[in-house]
Amino acid sequence: MYLDLDHHSGEPIYRQIIEQIKYKVASAQLNGQDQLPSIRALARQLKINPRTVVKAYDELRHAGLVVMKQGQGVFVTTKREAVRADVRRKAIADLARRLLAEASRMGANTDEILAIVEHEAQKMESEE
Fold first, then answer.
1. Model confidence pLDDT, tens digit, residues 54-77
2. Fewer beta carbons below 10 Å: N end or C end of the chain?
3. Could you give the number of structural domains in the chain?
4. CA distance 64 to 89
């Protein structure tokens, strides 16, 4: 699994891992029951501390996106194990606030942001 970290972005590395894995799941690059790299393997690949990977995987587990199976590894959840609606809404609202704050910082207005989100959603749907 390829993840691209930006050590100069100001966003914590564990958050970058979380967001990239979430994107891969949302865009069907990762599917239910796909196994993620082990903590040590991903830490070695990204040249980061294994505790950073543990933190990312723990947050993904808490959000209901992955399950950790003792002695087997970390797996993407299936649709039947999907995130509860209230947890999903809270996570989406958090992402929306972060997107709006960052886009606003860049000088984008609400109409521009919504147009871009709509365009990206259409692209994702056509890829499915």
1. 999 999 998 888 999 989 999 998
2. C
3. 2
4. 13
User: How many whole angstroms separate alpha carbon 117 and alpha carbon 114?
Assistant: 5
Q: What is the DSSP letter of 11?
A: S
Task: Supply the pLDDT for residue 75.
Answer: 95
Instruction: Please state, in angstroms and rounded to a whole number, the distance separating the CA atoms of residues 42 and 27.
Output: 21
- Residue 91 and residue 112: Cα distance in Å, rounded? 22
CA dihedral 93, 99, 105, 108 (to 10 degrees): -110
Considering the domain architecture, whether residues 58 and 21 belong to the same structural domain is answered as yes
What does the pLDDT read at residue 79? Answer: 63
Which of 13-22, 23-32, 76-85, 90-99 shows the lowest per-residue confidence on average (mean pLDDT)? 76-85
Contact 67, 61 (CB under 8 A): yes
pTM of the model: 0.67
- In total, the chain counts a number of residues equal to 128
Q: Tell me the CATH number at 61.
A: 1.10.10.10
Same domain, 102 and 56: no
**Is 52 in the same domain as 94?**
no
With 60 as the cut, is the pLDDT of residue 81 above it?
no
| Tokens 């040590």, located at residue | 40
